[in-house]
Amino acid sequence: MTEILIISHSKDIASGTKSLIEQMAAGVTVHASGGVGDGIGTNIGQIDHMLSEVESDTICFFDIGSSLMNLEMAVEMYEGDHDIRIANAPIVEGSFLAAVEISIGKNIDEIMDELSGMVK
Amino acid sequence: MDNTMLLQRLHKLQEVFTDKEAELTALDREIGDGDHGVNMKRGFNAVKEKVTEGSIQDILKQTGITLMSSIGGASGPLYGFSFVKMSEAAKGEIDVDNLKKLLDIFAETVSAKGKVTGGEKTMYDVISKAGEVLGEDGALKLEDLQKLADDTEDMTATKGRAAYFKEKSRGTVDPGAQSAVYILNALSLEEEER
What we know:
Chain A has five helices and four strands. By secondary structure, chain A is an alpha/beta fold. With 194 residues, chain B is mainly α. Chain B has one domain: DhaL domain (Serine Threonine Protein Phosphatase 5, Tetratricopeptide repeat, Alpha Horseshoe).
């Protein structure tokens, strides 16, 4: 089953979005990380770490500024076996839509297609 | 340039960025958030500490990964990822032709990942023109690189944090362009130490 990865500049946004999704679409695997240390930011290491834990194809969501750049680099350097996609959809609405679609059995291509209509 | 010389040069950047911390901080305080000096110093402290002997490819890749994980903001990942990409094209010993190729990759990577083109007052304005000031002997002279960075002084920032300063960004050399001068100078094939 497709998994979801969330990278945010804020730890609270990452964990808050994760709990929102998990409540609305139980059973969907969500990897979420945000902030650097106690502050605001993203770091490629935390994305690498999440990617090392995915066990299926994964759709990634990002928020502002350099999070996309870090995400793109981490995905380009990813050497695992799964298909890792980046969605340019709003982090909350996009990941929520993806989770619902995953829970009703849609595949990654269908979900990415849906998400492409939600560009931020 | 062989692996030993490359490692020495990259380790020496720790001293360079320690010396230049105040300069970069001052520039970044004008048109950014003032953390570029400390970021670059932190990055190359980590390089000095963690990057050890290996082939040219290993050294470039280790440097890239170290910079990506130790510098905040956009500059660390951009420099770091560029080193990773350069490692894939580096030969066992870097000659002038190989250095040209590496400079192309450096510029392409920064352009693709930073979503920049020329004239936007960024590190790209120095990196993308480094090939033009590269001597036939492979020298990347500090004074030539500095001229490229100085050219960013009259530019208006449209990318990165400096873009928020718009017209006010004019009159200050871009901090990323300035740090690129030191990094590129470390890749110079000139034998003598400056």
